[in-house]
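Exercise 7. Given the encoded structure of a 197-residue chain, write a plausible sequence.
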């Protein structure tokens, strides 16, 4: 007998199951029926909470990615010089191990041009990521740690490079070692910290 869950608990259960299905099958292949079967509930129950597969997938992606943003904010919110916080964020962000978070983001980027709910969520999360970086660049510049005439530009350039490195490492296994990826990211961060852009 299944325990009756409140609406918030049920939604979270559905989101966790959807993330697991996306990781197992890929974003394009996951079906509402897969999520329902994984939990032993009806597809109608899933659609009651999310109305469409596209909204379910977008909400699941946001659920997973917001955990990553919380960790980023924890790293960037430490009591440490801005440059040290930025270096820690870069090292944490780049893929290692199983790369599950990266698999989810890569799936999202591939599907977002066709699926508006997913594109809107990805855009919002990307903006939050770049804003968090820009705030730390601005803090470091204001404290006189390093020159940074354009914190938003520095954050955008760094985020674009990190995304590109991560996708390359994930899509082309073995094409780039983690060591090389980290070196390139460190060099790019150093250029931004030197005000060179």
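Solution.
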């Amino acid at each position: 007998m299944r325990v009756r869950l409140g609406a918030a608990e049920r939604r979270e259960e559905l989101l966790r199951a959807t993330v697991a299905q996306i990781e197992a099958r890929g974003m394009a292949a996951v079906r509402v029926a897969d999520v329902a079967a994984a939990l032993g509930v009806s597809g109608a129950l899933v659609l009651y909470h999310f109305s469409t597969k596209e909204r379910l997938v977008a909400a699941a992606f946001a659920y997973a990615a917001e955990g990553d943003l919380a960790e980023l904010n924890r790293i960037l919110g430490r009591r440490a010089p801005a440059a040290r916080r930025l270096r820690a964020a870069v090292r944490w962000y780049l893929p290692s191990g199983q790369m599950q978070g990266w698999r989810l983001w890569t799936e999202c980027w591939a599907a977002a041009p066709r699926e508006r709910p997913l594109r809107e969520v990805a855009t919002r999360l990307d903006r939050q990521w770049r804003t968090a970086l820009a705030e730390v660049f601005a803090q470091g510049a204001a404290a006189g740690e390093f020159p940074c005439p354009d914190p938003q530009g520095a954050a955008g350039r760094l985020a674009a490079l990190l995304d590109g490195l991560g996708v390359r490492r994930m899509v082309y296994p073995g094409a780039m070692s983690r060591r090389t990826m980290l070196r390139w990211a460190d060099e790019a961060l150093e250029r931004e910290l030197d005000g060179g852009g």
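Remark. DSSP finds nine helices and no strands in the chain. Students should compare their own answers with the one above.
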